[in-house]
Amino acid sequence: MFASLSPMRASDLAALGCFLVAGCSLFVGEEALADARDVSALYWLLAGSVSLRASLALVGKPGS
Amino acid sequence: MSREAPNAEAGGPARRRGPEASLAGSRRAAVGGIAWWVPRGAAGQAVVPGLYAWAVTTAPVAMWRGAPVLARLTASLAFLSVVLALVVERRAPIAARMVAGWGLSLCSAATWALASEVAAGSFDAAHGVAGMLGWTLFALVIASPVRTMAPGAVASAPLSPPGVGTWLDTALLVLGLALATALQIPGWRLEQRDRALLVRLVAVGGGLSVITVASGIAVGLDPVAGGDSTGVPRPIRRGAVLWMAAACAMTGAGLVYELGQRH
Fold this sequence. Notes:
The complex is a heterodimer of chains A (64) and B (263). Chain A is mostly helical and 64 residues long. Helix content of chain A is 73%, strand content 0%. Chain A has helices spanning 10-34, 38-59. The longest helix of chain A is centred in the middle third of the chain and has 25 residues, at 10-34. In chain B, helix 3 (47-62) runs antiparallel to helix 4 (69-88) and helix 3 packs parallel to helix 5. Chain B is mainly α and 263 residues long. Among the domains of chain B are: 42-143; 160-232. Chain B is flat, with a radius of gyration of 24 Å. At the A-B interface, helix 1 and helix 2 of A face helix 8, helix 9 and helix 10 of B.
């Protein structure tokens, strides 16, 4: 399995990391929104959105 | 840099053309396995949003205790119109679109007109918003052009190196689905109706974004589909670095703030 990782580059791994961070940020934002901490929720949801955008930009998806 | 398919003879036996052809064969087989599910027309595309809209808005009114028999009949006809359209769309796609669109909407309207005021008035805000989203999706899908797969598109598609496009795509899809599902959890433990509705709407939007980005990453990681068929590493664009720096800064600052609040 790990031999097949060779075509991947550091930026691809960074994109996967950003994707995971984005998922966690969005979840924290949802939790904050459920607890009525609206400012914190807005911040984490925005951080998640930026992380999602970063992951797409790092893999160089056409049109991103 | 040519982006044409490297295997012009994709229709032949896989064993003659090495590992790439084997991968092409496995992908063809995988697509062939789910071909029955691929919609052939507008009615097929509209099945899921149509049934969702029916389940959220029409069925509850018809299933209300004491609902008129005619309301139950029209609700059943609304459901059957979608199923009927799905069955006949291979032979008559235009008629199937008409049956699905007009059958579902007119029969649902008749159900609402025939239902008792108590049943119609029992809808809360969550039901209303969910129904509005369902009908909007149904209208968009039933009116949009049919998405069809060009003949031989899979067989002649550019291929990833063996081993990369198989398990990594699946892992990304599973990860995206897991994250999108996890986002739904916080909304289900809330008792305050307005807050729960807000959290669920945000969760749906976030889940759609996560799944969309997961598929985008899978396409971007494909060296051919991502525009890297030569194997030469693409330069990292400056914008990507800026986006990553912003993400790291925001996440780091948020973590420091949250940890500082807890201590």
